[in-house]
């Protein structure tokens, strides 16, 4: 009896259950058929082609819209070239006159010389800039890309032509004004003698070396240049 009880008490009591985890079976992807791959590639290619073609259509539409600007620009360019052939040499000559050291020896003409130089410089700068901008118009329109259309980098082209539209009428007037100023200068200095002494500026980048005295001379000036 005692032995039977001892055996019953020595057996461990069951305390829960043990769960065995089984990893899931991996799902093997189904291989796509060659037909479906070809169809997907073709769809992507068609989408890219459609997008590119759409961009090209938009770019070509902008080019056609700029045709009147190019025509007016060509007409203006011909007018600028004609003005350049007639007036450039005269404007360059006026530059030398306005900056002439001999004229600056006369009194009372400084303001007229400054005005003459200013009008001459403005006229020649506008003439050169107009020729350059008008010559670049066809190339800029021809080289338009989708990025230029998307960012509106072509909207300045009509403004360039508009800004230069009245220049061919202004240039002859400005040249005549330069000639009028020059006539006034000539009339003012007529009969006068140049009485002003001009002091030439010394170039600080050039080291001055006095002349070397080789013999005794009472007229020797060590500071003469």
Summarize the structure.
The protein is mostly helical and 225 residues long. Helices cover 64% and strands 0% of the residues.
Describe this structure in words.
With about 220 residues, the protein is an all-alpha fold. It has a domain at about 40-190. The protein contains 7 helices and no strands.
Keywords:
mainly alpha; single chain; elongated; 64% helix
Question: Roughly what is the average pLDDT, rounded to an integer?
Answer: 77
Q: Rounded to an integer, what's the Rg over CA atoms?
A: 45 Å
Number of strands: 0
Task: Work out the helicity level.
Answer: 55-70%
Describe the global form.
Answer: elongated
Q: Any low-confidence stretches, pLDDT <50, length ≥5?
A: none
State the separation between the terminal residues, measured CA to CA: 144 Å
Tally the helices: 7
Topology:
Blueprint lengths: L1 H9 L23 H32 L1 H32 L11 H33 L3 H5 L5 H9 L2 H23 L36
Helix pairs in contact: 3-4, 3-6, 3-7, 4-6, 4-7
